[in-house]
Amino acid sequence: MSLALSIKDLKKTYKSGTVALQGVDLEVKEGGFYALLGPNGAGKTTIIGTIVGLVNKTSGSVKVFGIDIDKDHDKAKTFIGIVPQEININIFENCLDIVVNQAGYYGIPRRAAIPRAEEVLEALGLFEKRNQPSQNLSGGMKRRLMIARALIHQPKFLILDEPTAGVDVELRRGMWEYLRSINKNGVTILLTTHYLEEAEQLCERASIINKGEIVAEGSIKDLVLGHPSGKLEEVFLELTRK
Amino acid sequence: MNREQLLVAFMTIFRKECIRIFRIWPQTILPSLVTSVLYFLIFGKFLSEKIGLIGDYSYIQFVIPGLVMLGVITSSYMNTAFQFFTQKFFMRSIDELLVSPMPPWVIIAGFVSGGIARGIMVGLGTLLIALLFATPVIKHFWVVFIFIFLTSMASSLAGLVNGVYAKKIDGINIVPTFVITPLVYLGGVFYSISILPPIWQTLSKINPVFYIVDGLRYGFLGVSDVSIGISISVLFVISGIFMGINWYLIRTGLGLKQ
Predict the structure, then answer these.
(1) Which of B6, B23, B97 sits opposite A107 (nearest CB)?
(2) How close B139 gets to chain A, by Cα (Å)?
(3) Chain A residues lying within 8 Å of B2, measured CB to CB
(4) Which of A77, A84, A93 shows the shortest C-beta gap to B100?
(5) In the β-sheet with A188-192, what is the strand arrangement from edge to edge?
(6) For B177, which DSSP code?
(7) Residue in chain A nearest B9 by alpha carbon
(8) A103 band by pLDDT with thresholds 50, 70 and 90
C-alpha cells in the first residue's frame, strides 16, 4: 500500500532557539487511521504545521502522497484537510458561508459547494445551524464546523489536531463514528489527541513523540502488548517521563 | 490549480470582502464621508470665500480632488491593513488561506480588490457630498477614474504589507498616523505647491501623495503642477514595489508562519 505521508529526518528550531523537532521520521499508509501522541510541547503541532504549510521546517523532507512539499507544496495541499487545535473560524460569518468559502479557496464554485456543504453539515449535525453566525455555536459545534470546513474539498488526507478537546462524551462518540465512516470510505486520518482512549478506539497505529523525538512507533496493539501493564496510558507515561 | 479554480478562489476572497464592507458600512464607509463633510464645511464653505479664486476655480472646487484622494487613500489602506491583521491575529482564520493551494498572488489580489472596492465607494461618496457644496468640474472623466482606481490599488497594497507584517495592533495604527496622514496633508490636498517657497516645492516632490493628488486634480480641473505621465508612473512604481514585498512576505511566510 502506498504512503499518504512520509516524513524523514524532520528538524525544526524556532527563532527563539527552541528545538521543537530533532529529526522525526514518520510514515502513514494510505487509508490508515494514525495517532500522533505526546505531551504538550512535544512537537505534534509543529509536525502538522509543517505538513500543511504553517511552519517553515529547518531541514528534512515531507512528502504527501509522494509529492515533496519542497517541490510542489500547493499540489500537496490539495490532498490535505486540516482541523487545527485552536478554533479559528470567522465568528461574524454564518456556518454555511464558512464552509462554502473554504471550498472557494480550493477552486470549487459556489453552485457546487453549497449542496456539498449542506451535506457535510447535515452529517455533522449542523444543518439546522447553517444560517446562524458561528459565534452562536457551542464549543463542540464549533469543532464540528471545523471538521466540516476541512472536508468540503473532499481531501484524501485529513489531519485532526485535538479535534475533541473540550467536547462532551456523547458528542465525542458521535464524532468518532463519523471519523470512522469517512476513514472506511478511504480518507487517511492523522490524529493528535490527549485522550488516549480516543486513540485506542480509533487508530490502528500510533507514534509517541517526546521532546521532538519519536520514542515509540507501531500498532497500538503491539505498543500495549509489549508493556507489563497492558495499558496505553502506562506506556505513554513511561515513555514521556524520560 | 487551473485558471478557473484560481478565478473562483480570487472571487471568493473578493466577494467575502465586499459583503463585509457593506455589512459594516457604518465602520467602513460612513467615517470617511463624515470627515469629508467636515472638510468641505470648514475649508470649502467657511474659508473658501476668504481665500477667493485659485486660477479659474473657487477654493472649494480646487480642494475637491484632494479630499476625494484623502478618503480613497485612507480607506483603501485601512481596509487591507486592518482586515488582514484581524484575520491573522485575532481569529487566525488567515491560516485557512495559507493551508489552501492558492498561490500568494491570488491572496494578494483578493484582499487588494476589496480595498479597491472600498476606495472607489468612498471616492464616489465624497464626490456626491461635494455636490452639496459646489458643482465639481470634471474635465477628463477617465483620468479621474484611472487615478482613483490606481490610487486605491497602491494604497491597498501598502496597507496589506502593513497587515501581513504587523505583530501587534499598534503596528496597524502607527503607520497611518505617523506616515500616511503627514504624507497626505503635505501632498497638496489643500494647496498647490506652486505657492510654496522653492525648498518646500522640492521637498513636496519627494512625497508620492503629491503626484497622486496632482494627477487627480488634472482629471478634475485640467491643471497640474507636473506631467500626468509622471504621476501615473509614480503610482505604478509604488504598486510594483508593494506588490513585490507582499508576494515575498506571503511566499516566505515572514510575519505569518512560524
Answers:
(1) B6
(2) 42
(3) 107
(4) A77
(5) A80-83, A157-161, A188-192, A33-37, A205-210, A213-219
(6) I
(7) A105
(8) very high
Identify the pLDDT of residue A87: 87
Helix (H, G, I), strand (E, B) or coil at B135: coil
DSSP count for chain B of H helices, then E strands: 13, 2
Torsion sign, CA atoms B64, B70, B76, B78:
negative
Q: What is the pLDDT of residues A84-94, one digit of tens each?
A: 988 888 888 99
Which pLDDT does position A242 carry in this prediction?
A: 64
From the CA of A232, how many Å to the nearest CA of chain B? Answer: 32
Question: Closest to A53 (Cβ–Cβ): which among B6, B92, B99?
Answer: B99
Which residues of chain B does A54 touch, with a Cβ-Cβ cutoff of 8 Å? 95, 98-99, 253, 257-258
* Contact in structure between A53 and B256 (CB atoms under 8 Å): no
Of A14, A75, A102, the CB nearest to B258: A14
What ipTM, to 2 d.p.? 0.87
Provide the percentage of residues in chain A whose pLDDT is more than 90: 60
- Distance between CA atoms of residues A63 and B181, nearest Å: 48
- Say whether pLDDT at A44 is over 70: yes
Chain B's closest residue to A153, CA to CA, is B100
Concatenate the DSSP letters of all residues of A47-72 into one string: HHHHHHTSS--SEEEEEETTEEHHHH
Asked if B209 and B127 touch (Cβ cutoff 8 Å), the reply is: no
Average pLDDT by stretches of 10, chain B with 258 residues: 93 94 92 91 79 79 88 94 89 88 94 96 93 85 93 96 89 87 86 84 89 91 89 95 94 80
